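Standup notes
- HV: blocked on the assembly model, inputs below
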Amino acid sequence: MNFSYSEEQQMLAETVMRWLAAETVVQRGFSPERWGELAELGLLGLNVDEDHGGLGATPVETLIVMQEFGRALFGQPFVSTAVVGAALLGNIGSAAQRDDMLPRIVNGSLRVALATLEPGARFDLADISTTAVRQGQSYVLNGRKAVVLHGDSAHVLIVCARTSGGQRDQDGLTLFLVDATAAGVTVRGSPTLDGQRAAEISLADVQVPLDSVLGEIGSGYVPLEWAVDRGIAALCAEAVGAMEKLMELTAEHLRTRKQFGQPIGRFQALQHRLADMQIAVEQARSMALQAAALIEHPQRNERRKALSAAKAMIGRSGHFVGQQAVQLHGGMGMTAELAVGNYFKRLTCIDMTWGNTDHHVELYGDLL
Amino acid sequence: MNFSYSEEQQMLAETVMRWLAAETVVQRGFSPERWGELAELGLLGLNVDEDHGGLGATPVETLIVMQEFGRALFGQPFVSTAVVGAALLGNIGSAAQRDDMLPRIVNGSLRVALATLEPGARFDLADISTTAVRQGQSYVLNGRKAVVLHGDSAHVLIVCARTSGGQRDQDGLTLFLVDATAAGVTVRGSPTLDGQRAAEISLADVQVPLDSVLGEIGSGYVPLEWAVDRGIAALCAEAVGAMEKLMELTAEHLRTRKQFGQPIGRFQALQHRLADMQIAVEQARSMALQAAALIEHPQRNERRKALSAAKAMIGRSGHFVGQQAVQLHGGMGMTAELAVGNYFKRLTCIDMTWGNTDHHVELYGDLL
Amino acid sequence: MDLRESPETQTFRAEVAGFVAARLPPDIRAKVLGFLRIERQDYVRWQRILNERGWGAPSWPREQGGTGWNARQRSLFEEECFVAGAPRQMPFGLSMVGPVLQAFGSEHQQKRFLPRILTMEDWWCQGYSEPGAGSDLASLTTRAERQDDVYIVNGQKTWTSFAHWANWIFCLVRTRASGKPQEGISFLLIDMTSPGVRVKPIRTLDEGADVNEVFLDDVAVPMANLVGEENRGWTIAKFLLGHERTTIAGIGTCKRLLVRLKELARSEPKRGRPLIEDPRFRDRIVKVEIDVRAHEWSLMRASSLEQAGKSIGAEASILKIRGSEIQQELSQLLMECAGPYAIPHLPEALNAEFAGETADGHGLNALAAQYLDLRKVSIYGGTNEVQKNLIARALLGSQP
Amino acid sequence: MDLRESPETQTFRAEVAGFVAARLPPDIRAKVLGFLRIERQDYVRWQRILNERGWGAPSWPREQGGTGWNARQRSLFEEECFVAGAPRQMPFGLSMVGPVLQAFGSEHQQKRFLPRILTMEDWWCQGYSEPGAGSDLASLTTRAERQDDVYIVNGQKTWTSFAHWANWIFCLVRTRASGKPQEGISFLLIDMTSPGVRVKPIRTLDEGADVNEVFLDDVAVPMANLVGEENRGWTIAKFLLGHERTTIAGIGTCKRLLVRLKELARSEPKRGRPLIEDPRFRDRIVKVEIDVRAHEWSLMRASSLEQAGKSIGAEASILKIRGSEIQQELSQLLMECAGPYAIPHLPEALNAEFAGETADGHGLNALAAQYLDLRKVSIYGGTNEVQKNLIARALLGSQP
C-alpha cells in the first residue's frame, strides 16, 4: 500500500486544480460550458473503459478528482453521470447499451441521472412503489421519484421500478433507461441548498421498449446498491476536499483576525477547537481512502461495511467541521459573503445524500 | 416554587455536614457505629411517618441529606433501608408489618435490602425467574438474586418473586419479606468498586409464612417500580453532591498546580473544560431537583419520565465530570491517594445502579 | 425549598394559553410554525394584540404599562406564546432601550419613547457591534463629535437586526478618544430617517437578510437624544448585559422546536412506520427532550434567584450556552427528519405568499435553512466561548 | 497512490497469526484476554519465545538482532499479537533505551546491554517524570554531580512503570544548573541494585500498583553509564520523542478491546436476547468500530510516511489522541456490558491464581477496573491537551 500520488496522479490533481482555479464565478445549476470542458479534459471518461473511449482509471483517480472538486465547490453533475451512471452502464449494460451510451458520456453529449428514491422512502433503496408492467413489447412505468440529483439536466434517467415482489423487497426490482423527454415523464427541477439542482419526477404510463431494461429483470437491487456505493465513495472524497479547504480558511482567519488586542489564534480554547477539527478531517480522510480501497472488494459485506463506515463518519465530521468553521468565523461565518457558509451547505447536503450518518450506522449494524 | 432552603432545611444540611466532617476515616463496608449515629440523628426516620416514630419529611429533605452524603462519599446502606425500604413498607405494608418494622428502621435495629434483579436480567425489574409457590400456609421461594446492594448487612430481604405469568411479565410478581437468616437463604457478600457492599443471594426452597407477603399477590411490580424510583431520586441527589465536591477539588487543583511556570488554571483550554464540567453539574442538579419534585406525582408516566430523565442525565454527567476531574488532575488523579478517584468510582457505580443512561433513555422512549 | 408548582402558576399558564389560542391570528401562526418569513406587520399586529390585553411589556413595571410579572411568569408566558406559534416580541424596544430609558432616560425621553415601544409605533434596532469589534465591545470606533447643539456621528455598525424595518436605532458611540477604552463611550438615540443614515442588508447563510450594516455619515443627532451622561455609556451597556438575563435561555424556541420535532417525527415515515419509532432517532429525540427538561429547571432556578433580587452571572452564561446548543441540536434533528428532502431548497417558498410548489409539497423546505440559520445563536449575544470564559472566571477567580 | 493490500502483507499477517496461535502459552493468553494481572515472568517468557523466532525486536535493524520490518509490518505484528491475547512487549528496553543506545551509545554500552534487552535478562524502566514536572520535562530537578569517576545522583522520579520489577533504569538528570533548562540535562543508566535506590509503589484507581516512585539518594553511577555527551541529554530525549511514533496509536489494544466487546455483547443477555441486538448498544459498538477503522487507516498513512523516511508530528499527536479516546470508549462499553455486575469488585480476583468466586461467577469482575485504569492513556505520554497544542501549532505556526 502506498499513499503518495504517482507522477500521473500528481499531474491529474494539478490539471484539475488549475482548471478549477481559472473559474471566476461559482456556477449555480448546470453549465454547458463547464460540462464541455470536463469532456475536453477527459474527466468524463474516468470511469469508462478504454474500449469505449474512457480512461479506465482506478477508484483512486476518482478520489483525486473529487477532492479537488470538493475544494473548489464544483457543482456540476459529475457524480451522477461520470461516476454512478458510467459505472452502472459499464457493469451491467448490454453490449448495445454500452456501445451506444458510454462514448457519449465520455464526449459530454449524454448525461444520466439516477431516479431511485421515492417520496416517503427516505434513504431506502429497496422501498420502491414505482411499477413497471410488461405490455407486449414494452414496459409501462408508473410512479414518483424523489430528489433526483441533477435530474433536470439529464437526458436519460436510470429508473428503478418494481416488476415483482412486495414493497421494500430487494428482489423484484428492475432498472430501466428512460428518455427524460418521453411521453408521461414530468421533470420538476428545483435548486438545492448548496446551489446545485435536483428534480421531482413523475412517471405516468411511460412506455419504454424492452431493450431499455438495464441488467436483469428483477435483479436490479444488487447493481444499484453497488453503483450508489461508488457515488458514496466519490462524495466522501469530495467532502474531504471541502473540509480541507474549510480548515485552511479557518486557520487563516485565526491567524489574522484580531480581538482583545491579539490574533484570536492565540486563544488556547480556539487552538484546541481547531485541533479537534483537524482530527475529524484526518479521520474522514482515512475513511475516504478506505472507501476507495474497498469499493471494488469482491465480497459485498466487506464493501458495504467500508462504504457505510465512511459515509457515517464523513456525515458526522462534515457537520462538526462545518459548524465549527462557522463558529470560529463568528458573525462573518453566518454571511453569504464568505465561502465558509457555502462549504458548510455542501457538507450538509453530502450528509443527506444517499443516507445520512444514522442511516449508515444502521446499515453497518445489520452487518456487524 | 422556591429553591432556597428553609431555616429547618438549612439546619438539616448543616447537621449532616458537621456530623460527616467529624468522620476521619472513610468507612469501607457496613459500620454499626455510623448506623447508630444515623439513628440518633433521626435520619433513618426521614421517610417514615410520624405515627411510626419517623419525621414524615418530604422528598426535598432526602435530597438535602443525600447531597451531603454524596459530598462526603458516605457509603452506608441508607438508601436501601431508609429510603427504598421505608418508603415501600410505608406504602404497601400491612398495618402489622408497618407497626412491626418501621419503628425498628427508625431506631436503627432493622436493615432491609431490595433483592429484585437477577443474573442475566440486567436492569429489568420485571425479568424475574425466581418463583414463589403456595404450599399450605406458606410460600416456597426458589431462585437467585443479583447484586443486592448491602444485602449482607440486611436483616430482612424484600424479594420479588413470580407467583404467576411468564418471564418478563409485569403482572404476576409478588413481594416477600424474607428473613436473611432463614433456612435456604445463602448470602454471598462482596465488596463493590466504590468500597460499599453487595451480595449474591440464592433462595433454595425457602419457606415463608403467608403474612410475609408485602402488598398484594401478583401486583408487586407497580409498588416496586415506585420504590426504586425513590431510590433513583436519592442517588441523583447523592451524585450531585459528589460532582459538586469534584468541582471544588478540581478548581482548587487548577488554581494551585503549576506547570510551564504558571498555575494550570491560566490555560484557557482547561478553563473551558472546567466550564463544561460546571454546565454538566448544573444540568444534573436541575434534574435531581426535578426528580424530587415529581417523585410523588400522581400520574405514573409523569413520574417515570422525570425519574428516567434524571437518571439518564446524571449517568452521563457523572461519567463526564468524573473522567475530566481525573484528566485535569493528571497522573495524580489516577492514584488512590487523592479523593478524586473515589468520587469517580462512586459516580460510576451510581450510573450502574438501577439502570444506566442507556436503560433510562430506553424507558423514556417507551413513554415519549 | 418547595418544589411544588403553585395553583396560581397553573392558572396563569392556562390563562395565557387560552388567550393566545383565541387571539393569535391564524395566518401569523401558520408562518411561525412553518418556519416561514414573518413580516414587519405581523410583529406589529401581535404586539398590539398583546398590548391591548395589558401584556405588551412582560418585563416592565405596571406603572410604565407593563405587567409587573416575576421572572417565572415571564418564562411561562414566553413558553406558551412560542409553543402556540406566536412570533417573538421584538426585544430591541421592550428589553433593551425601554429598560435603559426607564433607568437612565430623562422624563422627556421616557414620555416620548416608552408608549411608542408598547404599540410598536417605533421600531427600534441596536447599534452595538462594529466591523472588527465582535465580542470586544470596548474597542468600538464610531465617533460622535459635539458641534453646537448636535452630535455629528460617523462610523459603521453591523449585525444590526431589522435595521431595514427600524425608524430608531440606539447606538454606543465614542465621545472621547483619550483614556481607557471603556470611559469615552456614550449612549445615543438616532432617528433612522436622519440624513446620512444608510442601511445595507447582509445576506446570510439561509438566504435571509434580517441583519444589516448601518452606515452613519455626518449624521446630526440632537443633544436631547443623549441618554444619561456623556462618556458614561459603558455603565448603560453593562446595565443591559446584566438585565433580564434569563431570556437568553431561549426556552420558548427550545420548546417550540421540540414540539415541532415530535410532530414531524410522528408524521414522516421510515420503512412504512413513523420515524419516531426508529430506535436511534427516538433516542436522539429523548436525549434532547431530557436536555430541554434540565434547561427548563435551570431556568426556573435562575428565575427564582432573579426574583429574590440576586444577580445571576455564571448561571446566565450556562443558560445561554445550553439554550443555543439545544436549539442547534433540535434544528439538526428537524433537518434530518426531512431525509433526502433536506437537499432541495426554494428560498422564495419561505414567503407565505409563495404560490408554487416545493419539492416535497409540504413543510420540509424550510428545515435545512433553519438548521443553517440557528448556527448564529452560539455566536451572537456573546459567543459561547466568551460565556465559558465567564463561567471559568466565576470558578477560578479572575486571576487564577 | 495504490490502496491495495499486497499479497506479501497478507502472507505476513497469516504467518504471525499462525505463530502466535501455536506458541503463545495458554495460561498467559487467558490472563491477557481476561484482563487479569500479568506477572513479570509472563512477559519474559513471551519475549523469549518471540526472540527465538527472531521477532524479539520488531523495530530494530537486523544486524542488532531485530527484524528489520517496516512500520506497516510492525503494526500488523502488534495487532495480531494483541488480538490473539499476547502480552505487550515491554517498550522500555526495546523501544526506548535500545534505540537510544543504538544511536548514541558507546560500543561497549551496546555490546553490554542490547543482547540482554532481547532476552529480557535486564528489565528496564524509565526515569523521566518527576513530582511537579508532568508534561513539562525541562523543569526536572534530579541532579547528578561528578565526584571522581562517578556521578552522585540525588532526586526523585515518579510514574515509573514496573520499577519494582526492573534492574535497570534510564534517567534524565540535571548535570548543570545554569543556562537554559534544556541544556544541562544528561542521560544516565542506573543499576537499580545500587545503594540509595528505593522503589515505592503508587496505588492507583484500579487497585493496581504498576507505577512507582523511585527515590535516588546519593546513588553512585559510573561515568561509563553516561550515554552520549554530558549536558546533551535533551537531544536524546527529543530523539526518543520522535522515535517510533506510530506505536503511540495503541492499535493492538484497540483491536483487542473491540473483539472482546463484540464477544461479550454476543454472550451477555438483555431481555433474553444477546445484548448486541439491542439497537442502542449495537449503534455504540458500530460507532466505535468505525472509529477503529479510521484510526487504523490513519496509522497506515502515518506508517507509510515513516517508511518514506518522513518525520511525523501532528500525525502522531492525532494517533495518540484517537487511540486513547477509542480505548477509553471501548472500556466504558465493556463495563456497561456487565450491567449491574459492574458494581461488585474483588481486586484479588484479578490474580490468575485466585481460587474463590466472583459475584457474577465469570469474567465481568475486571471490567470496571479496566475502565478506571484506562483513564491513564489520555494522561501519560504527553497529555491529550499537550497533543492538541502541538496539532494547533502545526496549523497556525508557533506564533499565530
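- HV (later): unblocked. The CA atoms of residues 295 and 322 of chain D lie 7 Å apart. The longest helix of chain D spans residues 279-307.
- Next: hand off to the docking folks.
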